[in-house]
Amino acid sequence: MTEPNASAVQPDSPAGPTSTSCRTIVVAVGAVALAVIASVVVVAVMAFTANREPETFEVLGAITLEDSITTYGLPDGFECAGKGGYKDIGPGTAVTVADETGTLLAKGVIATSYGGSNGCWLDFTVSGVPRGKAFYKVEVSHRGELTYTESEAQSGLVFSLG
Question: Which of 31-45, 46-60, 96-110, 126-140 has the lowest mean pLDDT?
Answer without folding.
Answer: 31-45
